[in-house]
Design goal:
The protein has two domains: 3-50 and 152-222 and 322-380, FAD/NAD(P)-binding domain, CATH 3.50.50; 91-145 and 223-319, D-Amino Acid Oxidase, subunit A, domain 2 (D-Amino Acid Oxidase, Chain A, domain 2). The chain has helices at residues 13-24, 57-71, 73-76, 101-113, 123-129, 152-165, 211-216, 287-300, 350-361, 376-380, and strands spanning 3-9, 30-34, 49-50, 91-95, 119-120, 140-144, 148-149, 169-172, 176-182, 185-191, 194-203, 223-233, 244-247, 255-259, 263-267, 273-274, 308-319, 326-329, 336-340. Helix 1 (13-24) runs parallel beside helix 6, helix 1 (13-24) crosses helix 9 and helix 2 crosses helix 9 (350-361). By secondary structure, it is α+β, with helices and mostly antiparallel strands. The chain is built from ten helices and 19 strands. The structure holds flavin-adenine dinucleotide. Flavin-adenine dinucleotide is lined by residues 9-15, 33-36, 40-43, 45-49, 152, 175-176, 204-206, 208, 211, 227, 229, 315-317, 342, 344-348.
Amino acid sequence: MATWDAIVVGAGVIGTSVAWHLASLGAQKVLVIEQGQIGCGTTAQSSGILRTHYSVPENIELALRSWVAFKQFDDYVSDEDASSGLVKCGYLIAAPAGNKLEPLRQALLAQQAKGIAVEFLSPATAQERLPIARFDTAALIGYEPEAGFADAYLVTAGFARSARRLGVSFREGVRVDGLIRDGARVIGVHTSDGAQHAERVISTQNIWSSQLQTWTGIDVPLTPERHTVLALKGPQAYTQQMPVFKDLGSSGMLYYRSYGGNQMLVSEGTAGEQLHDVINEQGEVSMDQVIAVGAQVADRFPSFAEAGLASSWTGIYDVTPDWNPVLGSLPDVPGLIVGFGFSGHGFKLSPAVGRVLAQEALGLTTDVPLEPYAHERFRRGRLLAGRYGQGAVS
Ligand SMILES: Cc1cc2nc3c(=O)[nH]c(=O)nc-3n(C[C@H](O)[C@H](O)[C@H](O)COP(=O)(O)OP(=O)(O)OC[C@H]3O[C@@H](n4cnc5c(N)ncnc54)[C@H](O)[C@@H]3O)c2cc1C
């Protein structure tokens, strides 16, 4: 039977990025196995927000390296027709007096120390950038001009197409059911369509990564969490020129962006509904939820007290105990590399994560050390916890 250089399990934005990076780093025979269709998993639900703002310094580095790819995606994947769908509208983040203030200041200073353009804005200047909001209770406001949002599905399709051009094979509608081992070493996968052998296997299965626990016996600390996203149509447009906004002063740590050019996309960045099963179907959006989020929206965007609900949907986060991903090898399972637990902020990291996972799989030096993201951190109690507490802002 043919042996692949590498098999990637899962064709979301992370898996397709890994596949393209593997091929561009010289892997000749790469197979991606996807149980559904390319991009059909949680990637399709992404709000697409891109920023380098993080309170965890390691994440800043990955986001910064990824921004280079999003900004010139056609160059990055050597395909003049590829696009990330980037809207470079900037990113505003504000905190009132209180426990989020100092973490915000430290995070903004850390960005500046890395040479990232970040401005400290007065409430009046912030309002000029986002005139439909009020900032009178904000004690600190940061603005990142090189930020915005893009289209996660488009990026996934772009990575997949360019990967195909470099010779990567995709099998859709095929499920991986287990690992083939030679002693401890992983040498392939059992699938719903027979066995496939490989030098190394890279699992990018998102919420379905809990299957790794069955396959390896190693604890996978992951909770599927359902989050609700609302699109609101207010009396004033949230235009594409207006920045993405993160409101650390709201109880749900809400994030906002333009949607469709005049609507507002809004969602909470804190805890969602914890699910006991790995299910990716749409969940119910209750009127109670809409009212709770709507009240926070109206507090910050007064005219949106009159807004109507244009649409709503749900999406699932793969949440780890510290809201940061696990990247690299699992202990005592040579031949297996994993990338899961993106906890609602994986799109903005996907180019750099794809590259470091590909480097790790090929035995190359990784662009950034993977040690902080190692699975062992949970056992050793060295969590990669952000300063804002639980939540995808991390
Ligand atoms: C509502 C919502 C909003 C978000 N907003 C943002 C945002 O604004 N910015 C940001 O940076 N991030 C955001 N994220 C997070 C980001 O979208 C995800 O971190 C990212 O898309 C995850 O990509 P993935 O490839 O890991 O997962 P997925 O896209 O879920 O891909 C995993 C794939 O693996 C396949 N698979 C699993 N098991 C198997 C198997 N056994 N055999 C074969 N195939 C298998 C699945 O079918 C799936 O297609 C958001 C997420 C959600 C849900």
